[in-house]
Amino acid sequence: QVQLVESGGGLVQAGGSLRLSCAASRSILSIYVMGWYRQAPGNQRELVAWISTDGNPNYADFAKGRFTISRDNAKNTVYLEMNSLKPEDTAIYYCYARLVHTETRSWGQGTQVTVSS
Predict the structure, then answer these.
(1) Rounded CA gap, 113 and 26, in Å?
(2) Measuring CA to CA, which residue among 16, 11, 3 is closest to residue 81?
(3) pLDDT tens column, 86-96
(4) How far apart are the C-alpha atoms of 34 and 95, rounded to whole Å?
(5) What span, in angstroms and rounded, lies between the C-alpha atoms of 92 and 65?
(6) Residue 13: exposed, middle, or buried by beta-carbon count in 10 A (0-12, 13-18, 19+)?
């Protein structure tokens, strides 16, 4: 199972930007779909974005036009660039890796994103 470590969270004002990173402990090339979920206090965990093994990105409606997911297979790292942040984006953001053709997932420990108004 792959281990994942997120970084890049923090406190930012509304309208600002953050870039989250998720480093995997092993090669993610061609075998792992990678993505991000988030969970705000009192809310269920929700999907933010995911990226296929060949680099095709997919986004939740709230993320379209503001967030960009990308992957660098050579560095075993996935990124989430977040722009035009809003207070409602405040949450813990979790990276995950799903082994292709399975439902087996690995999760990171999460990184806190706080957007002040």
Answers:
(1) 26
(2) 16
(3) 999 999 999 99
(4) 7
(5) 21
(6) exposed
Task: Report the C-alpha gap between 74 and 64 in whole angstroms.
Answer: 26
- The contacts of residue 113 (CB under 8 Å, 6+ apart) are 9, 10, 12, 18, 20, 38, 82, 85, 89, 90, 91, 92, 93
Confidence class for position 58, pLDDT limits 50, 70, 90: very high
d(CA 96, CA 45): 12
Instruction: Identify any residues that bridge with 33 across adjacent strands, giving them in sequence order.
Output: 98
Residue 29: predicted pLDDT: 77
Residue 74 half-sphere exposure toward CB, CA atoms < 13 A: 0
Question: Residue 26: its pLDDT value, please?
Answer: 87
pLDDT given for residue 27 in this prediction: 86
